[in-house]
Each structure stands twice: as C-alpha cells, then as structure tokens.
Amino acid sequence: MKTQDIILKAENISKQYRLGLVGTGTISHDLNRWWFKIRGKEDPYIKVGEVNDRSLKGNSQYVWALKDINFEVKRGEVLGVIGKNGAGKSTLLKILSKVTGPTTGEVKAKGRIASLLEVGTGFHGEMTGRENVYLNGAILGMAKKEIRAKIDEIIEFSGCERYIDTPVKRYSSGMTVRLAFAVAAFLEPEILVIDEVLAVGDAEFQKKAIGKMQDISRGEGRTVLFVSHNMAAVKNLCTRGLLIDKGRIILNDSIDNVVDLYLSSEDVISTSSKSLLNSIRDRGTTQIMTSVKILNKEGVISGKDVSFRVHFKEDYKGDISLGYLIKDDKDVNIHASNMKQYNILFANKESRYIDLTLRSLPLSPGKYSLSLYFGNGNYDLDVINKAIFFQVFWDNSLSIKSPLKKWGNVFISSNWNY
Amino acid sequence: MLNKAKTSQDWLYTISPRKKAIDLNFKEIWRYRDLLFLFVKRDVITQYKQTILGPLWYFIQPLFTSIIFTLIFNNLASIPTGDGIPAFLFNLAGITPWNYFSACLTGTSSTFTVNQGIFGKVYFPRVITPLSIVFSNLLKFGIQLLVFICFYIYLVFFTDKAYNVTLQMAILYLPMLIIFMGLFGLGLGMIISSMTTKYRDLSFLVGFGVQLLMYGSAVMYPLSYFKEKVPKYAYLIEYNPMTTIIELFRYMTIGVGEFSLYKFLYTGSVSIICFLIGLIIFNKTEKSFIDTV
Q1: pLDDT tens-digit series, residues A159-185
Q2: Nearest residue on chain B to A102, alpha-carbon basis
Q3: In the sheet that A62-74 helps form, which strands lie side by side, from edge to edge?
Q4: Closest to A330 measured CA to CA, from A256, A280, A245
C-alpha cells in the first residue's frame, strides 16, 4: 500500500518565457528593440531564443520552455529526468524547487521538497567549513538543531576533518564540493530534487555520493528526482525515467526504456544532411567521405524507396566502390551490400557524390544505423561505423497497421487468400 | 491515476501561478528563523575579515564624519547648535541614527540583484535576506551607539562644554524610534529592490539619492535653524520622516529641539505603511523575478 502512495503530482505545468526580455536589463534595449521593430527589422536581441527550435513557431515572442507536463511520483521512487540541453529539465526542477513559478498548472506535494540545483549554494569563502555547514544547511531548509545533531556525521562524510575550522577559500575546489554535498546528503526532506551535481568530484567521491543517494532512496524510503547526463549513474540510481524534449514529456516509463530511447534518439536524422567530417573513422582509413544526406523529403518510410547521397572529397581521383551496412538499434546486422556485388566500379568521374537507393525498404518502423565503406575496389579507404542513424516511419495512410516492434525488424507485405 | 479520488485530499502544499495579491506565509518565515540568524552572523563576521583594524571601523566611520561635519558646518559655515551643546556631539547624534537608516536602505535595495545567484538555485522565503540586513545593521548601530554614549559621558561629565546637554524622559521611546527607522529603511529598500529587478536605473539613484537625502534630513543642522533661514522650503525637510527621526533622537539624547507626539506618530505610521507596501511589492516580485532579473 505504501508504495502506491503518490507523494508528488504535476498537473499541466507550463512555463512560458518571453524571448528577448531575458538578459536585457535596461530600457535602452527595450527602446532599441522597439526602434528595430517599427522599421520592420528583426529583433536584435532575439539571439537568446535562436538555439531553441520553439522559436521557429511563428512570429510569437513567447516560447514554452515547458508545455503541459503531467506526471506523478510515488513515495520512495527515484525518478530520473533526462533530455538534451535546453529540453526543459532545469526549468522543471526550478519550478519544483519553487525558485520560479509555473505559468500555468500546479504541483502538489505531500512533503517538504528540498532542492540541490547546485552544490554549495551560499558558501562564503571567508567563513570556516563548520560555519558554512550551518549556513548551507539552513539555506537548504534545515533547522540549526538538526544540523547540530548531524555535524559530526557530515564532517566525516565530507572527509575534510582537518580543514573544518579553516576558511573555505583555502579549500581545493574538490574539497568544497565534498563538504557541500555532505551537507545536502544529510538533508531529510521527503522529496529531494537533485540537478547534475555528481559531475564534480573525483571518482571515489562520485561513487560515495551515488551510494549515499541509493541509501537515501532505498534505505530511508525517500523520494528523489534526479537530473543527469551521466546515463550510467541514472540507470544505477533511478527506478523510473522521464524523457523530456523541447518542453514536452516524450516518455514516462521504466528507466531502462527511457535511457534506451534517449540514447538511440541522440543522432537521429530523418531528412537532413549530416556532415561526416567529424565522424570517427575505422582503424587505418582516412577521411574521404564528407557528408551523407537522405534525399526523401518526407523522411524514410517503410515499404518505399529510400535514397542516400554520399558526398566525397573533390581531390579523390581513384576508383570508387561503396558499401553499406544497416544495423538495428541493438547493433544487430540487418542487411549489407556494396557496388562490387552489383559488378559496378565507379571509375573516376566528374560527379563528387554517389546516390544509393534502397528499393521498397522492407524495414519495420524504428531506429537504424547506416555504416559506410568507401573503397577503391580492392580495399577500404574510408570506413565510418554507424555514420548516421535514421528513423523509419510507417505510412499511416495505408490500410495496413504499423507492425509492433517485437514482431521483428523486417516487414514483408503479405497477401491473404481464403 | 487509479487512486485519484483517494489522493486528492491532503496535499501538504501546492505550487501554482500566483493568484492572490498578498500571499505571505509567516509560519514559513518563522521556520526559517535560524537562517535569518545565520545570515546576520555571516554579515557580521565576514564584513571586516582580513582588515587590520577589524570592527574598529565601526567606530572610525561615525567619528571622522562627525569631526569633518563639525569642521565644515559648524566652524566654517557656523551653523549654531545651541548654547552648551558641543557641535561634535550634535553631529554624532545625527550621524548615528542616519548611518543605520542609510545602511538598511542601501543594503536592502540591492537584495534581488546581489542575491540572484543564490535565489536562482534554492528556495527560502526571500524576505529573510532584507530582514537579515536590517538586523546585522542593528548590531552595527549598537556599536556606534556605544561610541556616542562614550563621548556623551566624556563631554557631559568630564568637560564643562556640555552644560546644556540633558537626557530627556522621552528616551523611553528610543526603542520604538529604532524600530521605525528599521522599518522605514527596510520598506523603502524592498520597494527599490523589487523595482530594480528589470530596470537598474533606481539602483543608481540610490547611490547618490541617499547622500542627497542626508542633507534633507537635518543630520548636520537643527530643523529650527533651517526654518529660520529658508522658511520657503522648510516643509520639505519637516515632512521627511527621517528628519523627524533624527530630530527626535537628538531631543531624547541631548535635549535639542522639541518632542511632539504628533510627529512621533506621523513617523511611525509612515514607516509602517512604507514597510507594508514594501512587503507586498517584494512578495509580488519574488516569485517571478528570477526570469527578469
């Protein structure tokens, strides 16, 4: 019964930011913006929002950093929040920790929320370690009495006994972090919100910190919300995951599924072109291929032809033989072929690209990778393992329904006679 | 979702877009009283770290200001401070309360901009920060008051220059006066800090505005003398609550000027109203300022 207890509930949380207001502090900027606007020019301060896809939606000056976020957290659960930079994770945590209010929606909680968006918030360099423990603990919401009861444990956990009565400005940065994390680790709120704080400290301390967080959640039954880009730590620590992208929840599921989707979606391109200049080459091969592009405007669709265009360097003068390998998201080979199989040798022509068309692509919807092998007919010159990832979509206008993932990677159109 | 009906009852608290105009949670502020104390402690112990003279600076500052004021305003410009009232003591009696007020005002007026780093990372009732400034300045004020008392005793009992200096019964009102001063500085500071989250213009105004205000608060001259010399603009000085506070302080301690209950209540109500307005505006700002600061 206790595990069914919902301790935190987010209902339709949205957060809107006004572009351009961010980072402009004086009326001269506002006047300047207005002056640009009446001349019909682009807002000179819009750059703040440019990296954000959402800014492309119309001419609106407003973006939704979060839109309609709904989720529930049960008591004792460790929820991992993952997503790319700018997905809205930190905004969500800021709302949960009351640093900023939501534009719409509500968060309901059945316990005190303590947040750790940064280690050592409010540390003052001139004060000793001990004084800072008290101050930092109080900032995080602990009463003096609570801190006094735990001070010895905190100091021991931090491993800074020798320096505890020395001003913090004399500490190494690692020691400061250790001390700060130690304070936070002994917080006793019902709900703990943690943002990417394990990225600091040495390996030994990270291990210690993760262990402590496991104790907090498993041993003491407290609820933790955890944001990190360290997938190993997330998988290790969390029971459930929340994948956020562009301010929306993409998946709210078991942590393994969420991490898998996140990792596989990282490099997916559907219609755009990808430069191969920075791709990692296989041993013994050099850079010849420069980019690869999917030519299908509507994306890769199951059952339809799909064309890839591989560009290569202007100064390559030898014979050309291209090969490819398609793998699924679990790295299992699906299909491979090369020009040699078709008895084609592309001998030094004018064009600097090769189009590869796969006829009636028999793949089920999902994510696949394409590896490229560029050779001269005798041996490989440039090999890029998993040069691009691509998503195969199902054409929903068909009368045939999309096959399920567990049915396999290959889709063969069938006839039914009776 | 299954047990929605069951769980929708007893939420400890909710976070939602603000609806009410005044949304003060005094219980919460009380819970964070330890933080208030620790902030005060931090301000006090870190202020003069790595200085040779340390807390002596608390003494030096009013002392030298008084000496300079005496030289310029009394010896050079010959502003009379009354028979048997040493000009130095008169000035010290003006500077001591003024310093407290101006420290409260300038300290609290930058609350949001100075603390945006910490406010952006962790939640606690924001009003704790300006409150801590008022309290830590109170300590400083106490020390400066001690300086004042020392000179007071010296001049009254060991010299014959201060034969007209008398302690008034009204001194019993002093604690109230100090509270008014604190509230007035805090209220004004909170209003300014809330208004500077988006536009920083006001923070420049505070810098020299406080200095100008000092000249308009009868710190280095008696109000009666100003009335006599510049009667046309005397009302500007007279209705400045700080003038009343300083005049009252001087009356209580050295017996210069006069005491009127009307003025005392006027100052009190202005301070309280100012504090309440400040609290409301501050409270309104604290929820969203992190997006605009």
Answers
A1: 888 888 888 888 887 888 888 888 888
A2: B17
A3: A62-74, A6-18, A104-109, B13-15
A4: A256
CB contact (8 A) between residue A108 and residue B11:
yes
Greatest Cα-to-Cα distance within chain A, rounded to the nearest angstrom: 87
Q: Looking at the domain assignment, is residue B13 inside a domain?
A: no
Is B12 a domain residue?
Answer: no
When pLDDT is cut at 50, 70 and 90, the band that residue A49 belongs to is: very low
Inter-chain residue contact B14 with A109, CB threshold 8 Å: yes
Q: What tens digit of pLDDT does each residue of A108-161 get?
A: 888 888 878 877 777 888 888 999 999 988 888 888 888 999 999 899 888 888
Question: What is the 3-state composition of chain A as percent helix, strand, coil, each rounded to the nearest 5?
Answer: 30, 35, 40
Nearest-CA distance B83 → chain A (Å): 49
Q: pTM of the entire structure?
A: 0.71
Please state, as a whole number, how many other Cβ atoms lie within 10 Å of the Cβ of residue A340. 14
In a domain, B15, yes or no: no
Which of B16, B46, B122 is closest, CB to CB, to A140?
A: B122
Report yes or no: B281 and B186 within 8 Å, Cβ to Cβ: no
Axis-axis angle for helices B261-286, B241-254 (nearest 10): 130
For chain B, what is the domain count?
1
Structural domain of B59: 25-292
- Could you give the CA distance from residue A256 to residue A261 in angstroms, rounded to a whole number? 9
Cβ of residue B199 closer than 8 Å to a chain A Cβ = yes
Distance from CA of A152 to the nearest CA of B (A): 19
State which H helix or E strand residue B292 sits in: helix B289-292
Delineate the domains of chain A, giving CATH numbers in brackets: 2-6+68-265 (3.40.50.300), 269-407 (2.70.50.60)
Taking contacts as CB-CB distances below 8 angstroms, the residues of chain B near A25 are 198-200
Is residue B3 assigned to a domain? no
